[in-house]
Amino acid sequence: MDKLTEFLTRCRLTRQVSNQQMLKIIKFYLESAHFESDALKFVADLLGPQKFNQFLLLFSKTDLMNISAITFLDPSYPEKLRNIYNPPALLFYRGNKNLLLTPCLAIVGSRNASEYSRRCIRGLVPKITGRYTVVSGLAKGVDSWSHQATLDNSGKTIAVIGSSLDVCYPAENKQLQKKISEVGLLLSEYPPGSKINRWHFPQRNRIIAGLSDKVVITEAKNRSGALITAEMALDSNRDVYAIPGPIDSSLSVGCNHLIQQGAIPLINFTEI
Questions:
Q1: Are residues 146 and 105 in the same domain?
Q2: Whether residues 150 and 262 fall in one domain
Q3: Is 134 exposed, middle or buried (0-12, 13-18, 19+ CB in 10 A)?
Q4: What would the pLDDT profile of 124-136 be if each residue is shown by its tens digit?
Q5: CA-CA distance, 7 to 148, in Å (whole number)?
Q6: How much is the pTM?
């Protein structure tokens, strides 16, 4: 682990330094001959005396054993992710980080998706395996089906999760998460031992969109995490594909609306 990665990992493990603040610390690394002292002064000014003393105690006692992480400056960090709004300064990982440098396609959709999504995923994944690494969020429903279908077709997959790497959420995906960490890549912004918060998941979605050259939405209600991912992908000039569905299905409202707004209707899986 290089000096910057170790410093940022220790900062993150204190849980007192935000992603935006770590991005500022990276600027110190690039611009200052006295990186560590300038960065610590920045954190001291940020936290105040009492909280900074707590920070120093946690910073010095953190155990970096069995922790793998990459920073914004790592050669394995993809350029397309660097260019999104609020890019992650630090990512914890298990698995093959070189997958970050491959062409990636995200498949996202409802946690409570119908059999229609499952059939579409089974039809789509064999057409893209070998050309794209499939990215999703390891949630129940579309995410899990996408990861599993990719593994079943001997493809590569990246799971960007909203928990820390030492937590399996949902619990039913324990074996799938383990398999991805062994043959694919598991990514998280959150250090080991972190409590899961609701806001972690929309934050995770920006990474899914940022990693991907293209994003496919299978089914999504009018307000959903999948639509947040699609909007972030559009903001980052990614190709967004939506699978059209019945106009009387609440699970197709989001996809049909995206198509109405200019997303590419995916009606032939060989078109990607």
A1: yes
A2: yes
A3: buried
A4: 999 999 999 999 9
A5: 36
A6: 0.95
